[in-house]
């Protein structure tokens, strides 16, 4: 690995605890190691002991040595709380300039007061209630942006602070301050009593941190024990912490490469069953017409919208005019605004065009995978918040229709109220045990569909929905929801050009699991 980096890098520094005795007269193993590094143009710069026992275990290698490598003023100093010494040196490096040019613009959260936001937004202009749904969505985006600009205008972010750990209590903060004080005393007077006092306090501080972590995470696990999805999220966060920056290149070319890769992947999968799609489409077209059982939606009331706003997850999309959590907290005063948009969509049978664009965030499938390879990422879709509100209103009415008409399979547990992983497992285990009692052998077939949501054929889906008795404005709305969609990849502040979608149901959508 080092040899490859040495060839690719103009300035390479390799440092760490190598655990080889590299004193003035190095041992055989250390001599061979240093000689091997020298063949790659890396010189060892540490010349004194770096361990309390007098050995040189911690090394710094640099291309070109001290003259050409840019390493200056290397010093070694003992520390009271560890057997290893502290190695300091100075290097000159270019600043880590932020991509996209200019500082990052942010809105101070402390200024985003729900009451102030509602006052800046004002009442919905009743004279515009009859406008088209696309015009109403444009009005929503314009007025909400104006209101949020009024109460919390964007300002440049001069620096970023690390997010405090949730388990870091006020008691730990006080102990940290005390630790700094004892360290200052030892540095000013490096006597043995001061060193002993600092080391004892460091052990107590480390034990307090461990105890605080145990209490915090045990409480999280206990609170989620009856919610499998939340419990899985908590445990996954403990075992696999999210990387700070999983994608090494946020350039525009990288965005376009991701967008093309995801589009080509779906096209390749669909091409493998083109013949089957044609046959199924013909079967759906030949199916006898079904009486229309549902041809219009019930218009939403303010209390319905208020309930939906409280239920939708407050995940903010970069296309949203303001943070979704603010819309949720101010939902009492926003219900009329949102109700007009929702009802216009239901009445016209049109899903707003501006809400059909999805933002894709590539996510590395496993931390151990190579982050430079596109195939090691899965696309995570994020949709505008207002679109998910409209979807949830429609989903509630479609769910009621499916229950009333008894179209749901009795064995279906997914995407169904009152059902879930537990009901599926209970039914499965019960069936297996019954067959075992009868002396039968059971065979369980599990299918994993690649890009399942992305490859759904619109024509087949709409034909089957019509065959279930959906028609009129309802079927027109569903057609509008599926067609004319696009997606773009976002990395940092860079986005790809939108890619049109000719098949599939949108990931991250409220309706997609039901339609699938």
TrEMBL record:
Record InterPro entries: DNA/RNA_pol_sf, Endo/exonu/phosph_ase_sf, RT_dom
Domain Reverse transcriptase: from-to ranges: 344-516
A Pfam family hit: RVT_1
Highest taxon of the lineage: Eukaryota
Protein's recorded name: Reverse transcriptase domain-containing protein
Species in which this protein is naturally found: Anolis carolinensis (Green anole)
